[in-house]
Amino acid sequence: MKILTDRIVTARKSHVCFLCCEIIEAGRRYRIATFADAGRAWSTKEHLGCAEIMQSMDYDSDMGYGEGKLLEQLAEYTDDDIDTLVTDVDEQQRLIALRNSIMEG
Q1: What is the pLDDT of residues 59-104, one digit of tens each?
Q2: For the whole model, what pTM was predicted?
Q3: Which CATH number fits the domain 2-60+68-104, given the four candidates 3.30.1740, 3.30.450, 3.30.110, 2.40.50?
Q4: Residue 6 vs residues 10, 21, 33, 42, 66: alpha-carbon distances, Å
Q5: DSSP letter, residue 89
């Protein structure tokens, strides 16, 4: 897989985060990346905090980098883990709340 573009932009409208499937609100900064593999190209939009957590994960290539993948792993992270890995305080709080809602079922 090849990364064609990888940038941080400000949302002019709301989008859905590829990693957590939650809304990226208009006015928020987010990561947009474009990839190519086997003759296909696609883009993803990700909360900055989700991208930071995903980059820290230790997973093999068979696990993949798929839609909603962060939700499968987030329950394993403590508040301190999230605070350490995610630089933005609002994103830290959003991810902790998301993790707590996942754990509550």
Answers
A1: 554 555 666 778 878 888 999 999 999 999 999 999 999 999 988 8
A2: 0.82
A3: 3.30.1740
A4: 13, 19, 4, 12, 17
A5: H
